Amino acid sequence: MPKLDLNDYKEGQVLCFDKPLNWTSFQLVNKVRWLIKREFEIKKIKVGHAGTLDPLATGLVIICTGKKTKTIQDLMGQTKIYTGEITLGATTASYDLETEINQYFETQHITEQLLHEATSKFTGKIMQQPPIFSALKKEGKRLYEFAREGKSVDIPKREVFIEEFKITSIKDLGNQQPKVTFKVVCSKGTYIRSLAHDFGKSLNSGSHLSALRRTAIGNYKVENALTIEDFEQQLSR
């Protein structure tokens, strides 16, 4: 892409990034803002993201600058596509690998047919309970704050729409902790961690999300996204 000047960033850019593992979406936004400020020797510029990704997920995060930050709500409403891995036979409090395994479950009864049949229970409009390890607010407090204090809290279920939930591979079936890889096409507000957790329950077992990658938001694809290193090089060339 051609080199952009400060006015381009102020008028607004929609930038696609491939978020690295263990970064928060806010760290990515802060890094982009800092790089722009450093390059153009300015004190401030508007920068925001159009939908967060958990630290343990990789993939597409859209970052808007300047006047394009006004399009963030529209971008957040776009359909999302994810790929990832669910590990069966064990649960965690966060529904992913952010916290330790807290319970083990039987998996010997799980067959390939059962796995594929279970996905159909999670397509279309479904009611989903967000994980307590999330940034949603209740009584002015983030849910993860209740979780870290060891407090239980009533989290209302929310309606989400899952267009597609497909198992793409099955590994170690018959072992204590089989793994399945999947593809999900879903609406705004869907928690893939909750989907992974509920999937295990529907199999009369338990499960957690062991890998996640966002590959698309609407027409924006991760294969066209920049790494933060790419962006830094583009800015300074």
UniProtKB/TrEMBL annotation:
- Name the residues annotated as catalytic in the UniProt entry: 54 (nucleophile)
Q: Which CDD domains match?
A: PseudoU_synth_EcTruB
* Reactions performed catalytically: uridine(55) in tRNA = pseudouridine(55) in tRNA
In alphabetical order, the GO MF annotations are:
RNA binding; tRNA pseudouridine(55) synthase activity
Question: Would I find Isomerase among this entry's keywords?
Answer: yes
User: What Gene Ontology biological process does one annotation of this record name?
Assistant: mRNA pseudouridine synthesis
Q: Which part of the chain is the tRNA pseudouridylate synthase B C-terminal domain?
A: 193-233
Q: What class of enzyme is it?
A: isomerase
EC number(s): the record gives 5.4.99.25
Task: Keywords in alphabetical order, please.
Answer: Isomerase, tRNA processing
Concerning InterPro entries, the annotation shows: PsdUridine_synth_cat_dom_sf (IPR020103), PsdUridine_synth_N (IPR002501), tRNA_psdUridine_synth_TruB (IPR014780), TruB_C (IPR032819)
Organism superkingdom: Bacteria
- Give a yes or no for keyword tRNA processing in this entry: yes
Residue span(s) of domain Pseudouridine synthase II N-terminal: 38-192
Q: What is the role of the protein in this entry? A: Responsible for synthesis of pseudouridine from uracil-55 in the psi GC loop of transfer RNAs.
PANTHER family registered for this protein in UniProt = PSEUDOURIDYLATE SYNTHASE TRUB1, TRNA-PSEUDOURIDINE SYNTHASE
Write out the similarity annotation. Belongs to the pseudouridine synthase TruB family. Type 1 subfamily.
**What's the name of the protein?**
tRNA pseudouridine synthase B
Q: Which organism is it from?
A: Psychroflexus salarius
